[in-house]
Records
---
Amino acid sequence: MKKTKQILITGCAGFIGFHLARRLLEEGETIVGLDNLNNYYDVQLKADRLILLRNYKNFTFTKASLEDTKLLVELFEAYPFERVIHLAAQAGVRYSLQNPHAYIEANLTGFLNILEGCRRTAVRHLIYASSSSVYGANTKMPFSRHHNVDHPVSLYAATKKANELMAHTYSHLYGLPATGLRFFTVYGPWGRPDMALFIFTRAILEGKPIKIFNYGQMKRDFTYVDDIVEGITRLIDRIPAPNPSWSGDAPDPGSSYAPYRIYNIGHNKPEELLHFIAVLEKELGKRATKEYLPLQPGDVVETCADIDDLYQDTGFKPVTPIEEGIAEFVTWYRSYYGI
């Protein structure tokens, strides 16, 4: 019989956290979920994702903010976590221009509390969400974990880069095995209302114009949520070890002499934004009214993930085409909103 592990998933009422928790619960793992259910987007959607509480006896939920140091200390003392999967964060590139303090509190102070909890209780593996946004001003494609990422173009990206640095410090000082995952434009059922697919779908169905930035001259490595979850799942028990070939003379940003790794999880197939919209229009059976606008501050023109290392180490690479992924999202959207 498979031995189950006690796993903490932060952000369990979030988009990726919900899908990951459901997958692991189905596999019989014991999950403790943490989320603050804040109002960055529709709280009801987050609450509805907590259907997990009704459907799985092996799921426990704690409502708390990452920056609540006292509660985080108590949580780590109460449960002997073998694995911590840290997905909670203040998300969104554009919102970071409006409310920068939220990113410092959740993404830096909050992440420090997670690191301290892992250190104090000797967690065997910390997996945490980084972002493709850390590549910032880089233009060499595809983006590789071996590339330097020192030129972020949004505060959100800067906090995610800081998370990678903080994790490495704890791996170095305390031997904490840590794996950072750079997600590329995740989409799918139960998605975030602040992301393009959700915004476009709602606007098209309501007959409102959609805003297309950089006059449509953008490419994104859209990655279906089930592929993200599969990648995370395959890495849970792949505990990073020091890289024996790592050298300070030519330091590799994706690994270390410490038990530390970085991976990209992306589809490795950038799609033109206008093609993505065309697929959505076909699925909805309705044309969009398009409003073309300049590139927004903090945005990048193109993303593409180099996933060779992920495939080499796990045997997995994302496979879901946007035609299939968008169809799944639209089916869910119509069902959830009764359309």
---
Amino acid sequence: MKERIKGANPYMPLWEHVPDGEPRVFEYNGEKRVYVYGSHDIAKTEYCGKNYVVWSAPVSDLTDWKCHGVCYESNSILYAPDVVQKGDTFYMYVAEEKGSKVFVASSKNPAGPFVNPVKTELGFDPGVLVDDDGRIYAYWGFCRQYCAELEDDMATIKKGTVKENVIRHSVTSWSPKDGFEDEKDAFFEASSLRKVMGKYVYIYSKRYYTPHPEYGVYEDCNGFLSYKFSDSPLEGFEHGGDISLNGGELISNFDGSKQMTYRWGNNHGSIIEIEGKWYVFYHRQTGTDEYSRQAMLEPVDVAKDKNGKIFIGKITYEGNEPVKSEPVEMTSQGAYVNGLDSRKIISASFAVHLFGGKKGGANGGAGGAYIKPVYEKKDDIDAPVVDITSGLTAGFRYVQFGKTAPFSVSAKITACEDMKVNVRIDSYDGKIIVSGEMKKGALNFTSPVICDVTGLHAVYFEFISDSDNVIAEFYNFTFD
């Protein structure tokens, strides 16, 4: 029996739906682990749900995630939380009543349960920083940004410290017309403060509302995690850049502009250093709405230039000096930095490219193919790619073939019509390494690999039929 790949992207099991994940490294009982606290998409017909769950992984292996269960429960819908440590106590900032009321609860265990909630004066999407000197700062807001210093009780705002719009906000039909709009670098939500190379780095969800063809953005888009930085925790933030975009692989058009290949949606997360390496934690969309989001991560580069400017993401250097950063690529591999093992079972739900087809659109856009959410807690479950029409490509970045070329591919595919399946490498219109036929009603696809393939490659499954109907559902694949 072949082993299934787990802990890729998404890194939690495919039945789990945890967005808004703020990662933290905590040491407890002599063990350092990465803890993720996010809201929990279990309501299914609206954002989030009425509990928080905690997942963690050892710092030595970001593919080995463990669920610690429910750490906080409510009678109201809970939006994005944050957790920090001060002394021997862990504090969870709980966003009750869809983020309109924020409480701070506490625990001696980073996995909770978090108890004794105390009302705070903080607001939507709270993010908290315990500084090196023990002072505590809080950040929050939706389409308008706030920050302040907290008293040692972790709940009370220090008198006279509240500041507004230290990061200018986005322009929307519901944002205030207060003169603090920003046309180029607009705060939307999802405040998170981290200390990086001595600087205060403000990570947030940006909302672009002007076209950015280099990112495939042609309409209002808040699929980005972005950042600014400062020498001070409550003022002086300078432009940084974009760290993450959850719109999948970007492909080039003939005019040099780009096109997303995965349906973007809201984004929330942060960066963290783990064992000397930096990562961004964010979320993607599944289904046809924003109510079944999943946790993702990517390695990122972090650097500081001679003038003190912070660079985060995919960095371009001139010599040893950083000169430019841009969003890191959205991948299927996540923490598997050498690619997904081609000889193991790879779920179709690891796709970061769902593009084309008769219905067009990317991951559910304009009725196109999408990843169907699943909720049954089974280790061998797949979240299939459904509503596949002719011309659709499903891409995986990246797959590791090793030094020995495979001789065949096997895939669990339900054929709803007669069709051809091609497997391409390196790009969605790249070299064909597999081509085979499926008859309507078939449940499995097996075909020889027609050329030697070794090393690391992007892999794309292409589905072709004369039918204008839905032609397939795609569950998983492996090479032999």
